[in-house]
Amino acid sequence: MLKRYATLMLGVALVGLGVLFFVIPDRSHVVQFLVRFWPLFLILAGVVRIAGHLMDRHPRSPLGGFILTALGSILLAADLRGQHTFLQIFGHYWFWMLLALIAGRVIQQYTHRPEDGPRPRTFSFGLVVLMILIVGGGLLAASLERNGQLLSRWHLGQLSGVGDYLFGDKLTVEDEPAQFFATAPNGRLLISNGYGDVEVRGTTQTLASARLLQHIRAMSEEDARQFARRISMQITTNGNLYQLAVQAEPLGVDFHTTLMVELPAHLQTSVEVDSPSGQVKFFGLRGDHTIRNSDQVEVSSNAGRVTVEHPRGTVQLGQIQGDVSVIGTRRSLTLQEITGDVFFESHSSNANIKHITGRVKGRINNGRLVLADVRPWPASMAANWTVHLEGHQNSRLKVRDIEGSVMIAAERSDVEAEAIKGELTINSSFESVRLNRIAGQVQVKAENAAVAAEELSSAATIEATRDVVVHNFYGPLKVTTQSGDIRLSANTAPTGDVSAVSQRGKIRVSLPSESSFRLEASTTFGRLRFRGFRDLGLPRQQREVLITYNSRDQSVPLLSLRSTNGDIYLRATGLANNEEQDGEPH
Question: 384, 365 in Cβ contact below 8 A?
């Protein structure tokens, strides 16, 4: 049954991929995904065959499944590591193919049943010969790969394209010298390179320059230069608008390009890169920049706004003096040393945002966010929120060291806030909320979630449906929960009113014995128990009390404790560590 389900899922995946290929208007991304990750289908097919053998002995041998799985894993690992020639792949990974061959035969022996017929030989003559060929060919391929100059003398005639892919090396060719062009102040530069990477740097020279590097897999440098002549760079100008584009004829070989641009650092030039097939790097520029639909993005030491839209790879921005906007990241996002407002949208990725002077707003889904060290601009101190995180789902959020107000709205997300110097508002559900060292007012709504807080210096309101724990608060404090317990403790006497209401849970409050308060405590079906406070005793069955302790002044803080089905315990701070977890005090 499991095998049929796996086969069905494989068929559904292939059909869905085909439908996606025809539905999406821009099919280049689908093609790039298939070109890079097609070995995953080999791995899945191999796993299905192995599972079929283990469950119902169909196929009769798991050897083919192990070979398919090993082959797919080898090709995927080689592609991710940039190994594309036959010699590189076979020379580095022949051992794993040998191991898959041996594992398939050994598992076939251990899973053999009497009803399957005569037990086959573990290592037949043909299998031994094949193992020797794998070992010998792997060692030979590794030796030839280390001495690649021998292959440069080979010529494969009409099959040169295949030979270039199997045996060729990646050669870098700069077929033309750098092209110089003058840029005007506040100019705009549009860059298009659908065949590779883009690098833009600021320099001290007075003229801008651009040069194109071609990385071509070929048998020799002469062959690479012949292919490079069919790749060109064009520069066009229209007033303050400059356009750089890379064009290439069909080559039939593996290649990519690097477009390197140098701009005068003293001039402000806005750069826009649209849909490159490779990575984009900016360094030491002045101007507002936009990068769309690229692989890895890296921008550092820029004076001006930076916008990154729908990158396919990782994003790293640092030392930016201007606003930053990053939309649609699906890999890791790193923002550091940003002087300006930050906006981000991230999906299924990890975001690390630190050392921000400005306001931060954004959301992350199915990922993890670490936000630390945020200081607002003096002009934005009066803004509603220094950090505004809204719309998060299925994520983990950690926010700390914020000199301003923080607002967090998240569903099914774990939330942790620490060292917040302004107000803190959290709306969360289904995951825990943890607070520590909050200087401003706190408002927390946690649906189907527990709340734990420490060091609350100002007024706090916590609404939850599960357990609530608050250590070292100063008041006023208001805590309500539907089905959880409430545990409150303070090292100093509260300076404001304290209210704790639980419908079906216990309430435990620990205060210094010298505290002064008005006590209103009641439970419908539970018990009231007080310990450690002098002259504060109750009859054993009493379920409601209204009394003033250690003061004749009615202006002292009000301690209101109410539970429907749970017990209420009030204890002196020194006795809290020795309390019984569920039993009543004596």
Answer: no
Residues belonging to the chain:
586
- CA dist 505 and 499 (Å) reads 15
Under 8 Å between Cβ of 429 and 418: no
pTM: 0.69
Closest Cα to residue 356, out of 331, 330, 336, 327? 336
- Which residue, chain included where needed, has tokens 């799985």? 69
Q: How far apart are alpha carbons 148 and 161 in whole angstroms?
A: 18
pLDDT digits (tens, 9 = 90+) for 6-65: 555 556 565 565 555 545 544 445 555 665 677 787 888 888 888 777 777 777 778 778
Q: Which of 391, 393, 573, 565 is nearest to 481 (CA)?
A: 565
Instruction: Please provide residue 99's backbone torsions phi and psi, each rounded to the nearest 5 degrees.
Output: -65, -40
Three-state DSSP at 419 gives strand
CA distance 2 to 242: 59
Angle between helices 86-110 and 63-80 (to 10 degrees): 150
Kindly state the tokens that stand for 578. Answer: 């020795």
At 133-192, the pLDDT tens digits run: 888 888 887 777 655 434 433 333 333 444 444 445 667 887 578 889 888 888 999 999
Going by their DSSP bridges, the two strands 241-248 and 231-238 should be labelled as antiparallel
Whole-number pLDDT of residue 222: 82
* CA 352 – CA 332 distance, rounded (Å): 8
CB 438 within 8 A of CB 416: no
Judge whether 393 and 412 are in contact, CB under 8 Å: yes
pLDDT of 161:
44
540 pLDDT band, cuts 50/70/90, is low
What is the structure's pLDDT at 352?
A: 96
The per-residue pLDDT for 586 is: 36
Residue by residue, DSSP assigns 516-569 as -EEEEEEESSS-EEEESSTT----TT--EEEEEES-S-TTSPEEEEEESSS-EE
- The helix-helix angle for 63-80 and 39-56 (nearest 10°) equals 160
- Secondary structure, 3-state, 260-285: EEEEECCCCEEEEEECCCCCEEEEEE
Between the CA atoms of 497, 498, 501 and 506, what dihedral angle is there, to the nearest 10 degrees? -160
Q: Is the pLDDT of residue 555 over 60?
A: yes
Q: How far is CA 522 from CA 481, 504, 513, in A?
A: 16, 13, 21
Q: What percent of the chain has pLDDT over 90?
A: 44
| Mean pLDDT for all residues in the chain | 83
Identity of the amino acid at 71: L
- The first and second tokens of residue 468, run together, are 């609530």
Q: What b/e sequence results for 454-487 when a residue is b if at least 16 CB atoms lie within 10 Å of its CB, and e otherwise? A: bbbbbbbbbbbbbbbbbbbbbbbbbbbbbebbbb
The one-letter amino acid code at 189 reads L
Residue 487: strand pairing partners: 469, 508
Cα(275)–Cα(96) distance, integer angstroms: 37
> Do residues 72 and 156 lie in contact, with contact meaning Cβ atoms separated by under 8 Å?
no
Cβ atoms within 10 Å of 147's Cβ, excluding its own: 8
pLDDT in tens, 216-270: 877 778 877 888 888 888 999 888 899 999 988 877 677 889 999 999 998 899 9
